[in-house]
Amino acid sequence: MGGAEPAIRKGAGRTGTDRRGAVVAALMLAMALAALDATIVSTAVPQIVGDLGGFSYFSWLFSGYLLAVTVSLPVYGKLSDTFGRKPVLVAGTAVFLLGSLLCAAAWNMGALIAFRIVQGLGGGALQGTVQTLAADLYPLRERPRIQARLSTVWAVSAVAGPGVGGVLAAYADWRWIFLVNLPIGAVALWLIVRHLHEPERESAATRAGAGAEESAATRAGAGLEGAEESAAPRAGAGAEGAAAPRARVDWAGALAVFACGGVLLTALVQGGVAWPWLSAPSLAMFGTGLALVVVVVLVERRAAEPIIPGWVWRRRTIAAVNLALGALGLLMVAPAVFLPTYAQAVLGLGPVAAGFVLSVWTLSWPVSAALSQHVYRRIGFRDTAMLGMAAAALLLFAFPLLPYPGAVWQPTLLMLLLGGALGLFQLPLIVGVQSTVGWSERGTTTASVLFCRQTGQTMGAAVFGAVANGVLATRLGGAGDLDSVTRALGSGTAPDATRRAIADAVHAVYLGAACAATLAFLVLLLLAPRKFPVLTD
To answer: Are 239 and 206 in contact (CB under 8 A)?
Structure first.
């Protein structure tokens, strides 16, 4: 841990507390920016397309942003461990605000998509560094509180995004969707610059020595979750004042990670949409992506300070949490993408009411996350997460048992319970895995967890989209896919057989999500240690 916690932790009395509160306020604002921009554009698409054109590829307004966020997460995680959280967060916020300003000035759809990618490159720094700083600022016993606050901010912002975007597009101009980021981001930036002070990093030799001792202490205390940190890692803090050599940045690895992640995620996003899965473009993209995976492995094995170090996957706890949260990202696609279509097509609800059916899980998720500490302090991080995922699997398996067409309260209740189950699953794993590493490894660890979750969501969109379209093709004799059928329903021309086909397609997707939940449960059961090797502050 090496004494590298933010200096505001050491402030005596009221001053230190006030400074930490100011930094937390900045983190919440930064999290709100990242969450809003993932959804705020959706309801303004008609106005944007009407002004700029480019309807055939407007979906890249979302895909480009999310791809940039995902592939940049590992890079920012390593940079924050190398140079500190503050410079990475300041630089990321500045890039995000620059991207927002450029989006507001876009002159055609191609320029807007390019500037959304710039936004996403800043958004990756916001997501990863905010989560890492939250763990830096608070000791283990207080981390659930700050993580629950961030979860609440994310949930509220994500739900409010489409409504805010629609209001701005209807009563002002769609460009204000991006301009509204500027004052919020400026306040967050000012608070970070003014109130967050980090000590100088220890030398590379000291960090390596402390890391080795810390790993030994971790192995020794692996059977005692929450045991006190050994004196050995703390002893390394005395060398912090030594002259630090110039940090080496693995730029070759960063470029390889960008290229590999970008190609593979693009292949998943565009497969089955822009081209068939087994077409030449699809096979070429996947082939190129797999070749780049080999390049990444070779480059990272030779790098002195790799962007994706091997220990991320060699340590049981981190590897298990990465895989489990990847499965979480996969299953989250089922309600987030397909439930609104189900609510409108099968239950006959309007867009606003359909959005409410989905949004109820964002009410129970942060509440459950905040209360999860009372569970994992008794039974441990792994068992708490397994309890939450077991409940989530049962709820997902129950969805296909709903009657047709059914009552609105039935899927609404399932979503409310599902949010509670997933809050009990996700937060203990994030708090737990962050608590098994010291400061110099926390940014990389947090970024790897978020990267796996984002990648799981991208894979889920591709896989479940193919599942839904396959079920529809079978039920309707090969006529149309989910998008075309949904448009027909909107125009009031689809018969009852089509509505039943959509219900069957969504049921199949939920069964797939239940299988992903079962996979997450098994990963934790078989791979994760029963007691996380926690290093207390």
So the answer is: yes
Give, for 266, the enclosing helix (H) or strand (E).
helix 251-270
pTM score, whole prediction: 0.81
DSSP letter for 271, please. B
Superfamily in which the 310-537 domain is placed by CATH:
MFS general substrate transporter like domains (1.20.1250.20)
261-295 pLDDT, tens digit each = 888 888 887 777 777 888 888 899 999 989 999 99
Q: How far is it, in rounded angstroms, from Cα 470 to Cα 480? A: 10
Could you report the per-residue pLDDT of 482-511, keeping only the tens digit for each? 666 665 555 555 577 788 888 888 999 999
**1-200 classified as CATH 2.40.50.220:** no
* Strand partners of residue 275: 271
Domains 1-200 and 310-537 share a fold: yes
Q: Which of 245, 247, 237 is nearest to 10 (CA)?
A: 237
For residue 9, which of 131, 139, 130, 129 has the smallest C-alpha distance?
A: 139
Peptide bond into 405 cis (omega under 30): yes
- Residue closest to 124 by CA, chosen among 162, 89, 158: 89
Task: With CA atoms as reference, report the closest residue to 444 among 44, 79, 101.
Answer: 79
In degrees and rounded to multiples of 5, residue 275 shows phi and psi of -155, 155
Residue 461 neighbours by CB under 8 Å, 6+ apart:
268, 269, 333, 337
Dump the DSSP string for 324-392. Answer: HHHHHHHHHHIIIIIHHHHHHHTS---HHHHHHHHHTHHHHHHHHHHHTHHHHHHH-HHHHHHHHHHHH
What would the two tokens of residue 476 be?
A: 């309707």
> How many angstroms separate the most distant Cα atoms in the chain?
75
The domain ranges of the chain are: 1-200, 251-304, 310-537
Residue type, 371: L
